[in-house]
């Protein structure tokens, strides 16, 4: 993507590297993640305004630790400011003769940071201030020509700088929301130290991405996989803006959709967007292949492979089609595989880890490096109505990963109606927009109940509601008791097959948002 000013982020494998990019983008500055193996010539050729070195799980003194192909000072002498975060800080020290060793006390969680020397990085940041630490190693000795600018009780070199070159490093993580002034620190780096002016906006993203799509696609056709969620919908609208009638939107009714989902999507595209859409009923195929399957990873892979199979079959109806468009977001990618650094796989997503190794169609994924809130901003700029933009995320595998255990038509009907009641009551109570994601889960547990003086032995339904800004971390939503009571009463009264309702109060981490 062409941009007049940007910051490169070298990814050393942190699970939250993309959060750094997100925080920088919030300042109106485009940030691009690159592998640590990028060459000096490539970095200088990209003409970045600054470089950020991410955190990572390795120790810099390990023989197989990831290293860049250049020294940090090579960049700084060319006038490119550098900021190292956690592993990045330790890498700076290690390269220049400092000593990094296992910390006497590993530090995970909040710490109180004291600023000991004035620096533009901390402009507007009070001292002391709360920061988030997550490290097992620490600098034991500073390298020559470096000095401390901030410390904590457990980390005397919590922030350092070079005495003459534009190099800084911090032991804590300014990118996570637990660091109270983390956004300000990263904004200071981007705007005050790197002298970025803040030109990157949703409108700029749209213009650049339209160019990218046209360049990639040429005069060939694109099939867009419409799940009915915000991501795939905004993807379709953006691609249609780029290539018009070369786009063929297809919505597959997997039989795993929410109540009336497919009908709503078809009407939205035909009547509001004036974009042609083909609805394919493949519910029997999906349910047949999921019969007897209980393992969540197997479910996701079956669904992912079946999606591709259906789309490749449908593509044959359009002889010009060579591409498959998907609304893949970065949280899908980082949880599915190690993308650019040695980060750990959490789970496969149907449109990432669930894809077969050999496909007939090439992927078009314009939002692969964006978070949900960024996609929503792009959607608004494209004219997608707010009532749709504010919809909660819905996973590509649909209700299959909200039914723990085997997916059957009967269990789908039970969950579909329970979930519809839940969302309806949240909207009625005015809480829907305060929640990042809410949904019902059907667990493979039956309990004894009493209904109409008769004994019942029916399913347990679990309600889940979380708040988040990016989907990478999440807190459970403190649902008012009267609202929970109304929801539970309606579900047990109106949904045959459920006699008990529970509420999930687990955050992410340690849990994920979805149950599977």
Topology:
Blueprint: E1 6-10, H1 17-26, E2 30-34, H2 40-46, E3 50-53, H3 72-76, E4 82-85, H4 87-95, E5 99-115, E6 129-141, E7 146-151, E8 159-162, E9 167-170, H5 182-193, H6 202-217, E10 221-225, H7 230-243, E11 247-253, H8 261-273, E12 277-281, H9 283-290, H10 296-315, E13 321-325, H11 330-336, E14 362-364, H12 372-381, H13 386-389, H14 409-428, E15 437-451, E16 454-467, E17 475-476, H15 481-494, E18 498-503
Parallel strand pairs: 1-2, 1-3, 3-4, 4-9, 10-11, 10-13, 11-12, 13-14, 16-18
Antiparallel strand pairs: 5-6, 5-7, 7-8, 8-9, 15-16, 16-17
Classification by helices and strands: alpha/beta
Strand order of the largest sheet: 2-1-3-4-9-8-7-5-6
CATH C-level class of the largest domain is Alpha Beta
**Anisotropy-based shape:** globular
CATH architecture grouping of the largest domain: 3-Layer(aba) Sandwich
**SS field, number of helical segments:** 15
Query: Average pLDDT value?
Result: 88
Question: How many discrete structural domains?
Answer: 3
Description:
The protein has 15 helices and 18 strands. It is of the alpha/beta class. It has three domains: 6-193, Class I glutamine amidotransferase (GATase) domain (Rossmann fold, 3-Layer(aba) Sandwich); 202-389, 3-Layer(aba) Sandwich (Rossmann fold), CATH 3.40.50.620; 408-503, GMP Synthetase, Chain A, domain 3. A hairpin with a 2-residue loop joins strand 15 and strand 16 (454-467). Helix 7 packs across helix 12 and helix 9 (283-290) packs antiparallel against helix 10 (296-315). The longest helix is centred in the middle third of the chain and has 20 residues, at 296-315. It starts with 5 loop residues before the first strand and ends in a 13-residue tail after the last strand.
